Amino acid sequence: MVHRISGVLLACFLPLHFLVLGLAIEHAASLDRFLKWTEEPGVRLIETALVFVLAVHLLGGIRVLLIENLAWRPGQKQIATAVIGIAGTVAMLFLLLTL
Amino acid sequence: MSDVIAVSIWRGRDDGRYVDYKVPRLDSQTVLDVVTYVQRELDPTLSYRFACRVGVCGSCAMTVNGRPRWTCRTHVGKVAGGGRLELAPLANLPVVKDLATDMTQFFEKWQRAKGNFSPSKTRNDPVVQIRPSSPARVVVDKAIECINCGICYAACDSVRWDPVYLGPAALNRAWTLVNDERDASNRERLAAVAAVGGCHSCHTHQSCERHCPQSINPTASIAGLKRRTVRAYWSGELE
Amino acid sequence: MTLRLYLLQRLTAVLMVPLIIAHLVTIIYATHHGLSAAEILGRTRGSLGWATFYGSFVLLAAVHASLGVRSVAADWTPLRSAALDALMWLFCLALVLLGARGVYAVIAT
Fold it and tell me: Which of the residues A54, B194, C15, C30 has an alpha carbon 20 to 30 A from that of B128?
């Protein structure tokens, strides 16, 4: 379910991301203003959440690929929890590295 | 520990309501005992199913406090925390009355998934030797103990969301036959499980595996079907 | 989902894993080496490498996201086959067009 929600969120975000990039065509100035805006702490938080959502979706997807293609192993729920933990760590690293 | 259990039981059909009963609590008591007490002592109009009462037939499967379980194998102590129980019929199936559901679609999907054996030999051919230790048989044996109780079907999110999805039990059985070298209709079977509503609709939530009282893992069986159908697709045997 | 859609979904997912890691590394690099429009564009303008990288990324993401959206819509909305396919194609087209525009925006000189 987490995997599904994170996917939906990413699907909502992606068009916006593409739109912003398109600003570079004629509106380099507005792209600059946008980039300045992204340095705000509130926006940073949203970016971190976005990376977290991406990591969760990515790792959830890898979990599905593993279950579907490798031998079964008991204790997969524990692995799923560990995966969320790693996702959180990745998001934190992103925040730290880009601060 | 109080000596009375407050039980809410679903009465009616798909539209109905919960009715409350008070049942004396005993030391060794299963949820099936509770239901039986209600029907015998409090309300003879209550409808429910059971047969063996020892966990081998699967007839008594119901929703207990939101989860599908065998009521004969569910000790009251495990689920009636705070002395409360909520009993409803198995989910994802039409309700016949009270706690009894109509299992028709469950078995129809079993047939649609080609969960039935097709012989490839006659009585005049020598018996096929299948060693229990052969890899294919090991795979089959892990999934063969299904007694069609419907718990996995009731627990499955994809069954709930997609009315044509064949469901974990039907697909699990198809998987055991795919791995049975004596079976003759694997071509049709793979086509059946690769159709719309087949194995590819499984989202790997693993609710089936979590709730199966026989410790079967339908998610793994369905994953096997996914791999097998993809292989058949690449080699041109399918579609 | 039929077998083909299923396969496509898994394949685009697998192919995107390295691209995503590269993308995240790129962002971290960019943040440390200049994040103004001019600086970013200075690195990407006229680069065939970036064009290929982000071009393929856009295509894979567009396919993967549309298939995912189709699955979610099939389960959670009353839409059925023809409408689902229409939704999927529409979303895919939107992402491909917007993405191509974005890639063009940062590559074209």
Answer: B194
Distances (CA, A) of B85 to B49, B71, B75: 18, 12, 12
pLDDT score at A88: 66
Q: Would the pLDDT of B183 be above 60?
A: yes
Residue B1 has pLDDT above 60, yes or no: no
SS3 for chain B, per residue?
A: CCCEEEEEEEEECCCEEEEEEEEECCCCCEHHHHHHHHHHHHCCCCCCCCCCCCCCCCCCEEEECCEEEEHHHCEHHHHCHHHEEEEECCCCCCEEECCEECCHHHHHHHHHCCCCCCECCCCCCCCCCCCCCCHHHHHHHHHCCCCCCCHHHHHCHHHHHCCCCCCHHHHHHHHHHHCCCCECCHHHHHHHHCCCCCHHHCCCCCHHHHHCCCCCCHHHHHHHHHHHHHHHHHCCCCC
Give the homologous superfamily in CATH for domain B104-234.
Alpha-helical ferredoxin (1.10.1060.10)
Measured distance CA(B98)–CA(B16) in Å, rounded: 8
* The amino acid at B238: L
Asked whether the predicted pLDDT for residue A47 surpasses 80, the reply is no
Tokens of B110: 């079993």
**Under an 8 A CB cutoff, do B233 and C3 touch?**
yes
pLDDT tens for C24-77 read: 877 777 777 666 666 666 666 777 887 888 888 888 888 888 888 888 888 888
Q: Using 50, 70 and 90 to split pLDDT, how confident is the model at A71?
A: low
Residue of C2, C75, C76 lying closest to B200 (CB–CB) = C2
Looking up residue A72, the CATH number of its domain turns out to be: 1.20.1300.10
Q: How much is the ipTM here?
A: 0.76
Q: Does domain B4-101 have CATH number 3.10.20.30?
A: yes
C79, closest residue in chain B (CA to CA): B162
| pLDDT-wise least confident of A65-79, B49-63, B97-111 | A65-79
Measured between beta carbons, the chain B residues lying within 8 angstroms of A63 are 204
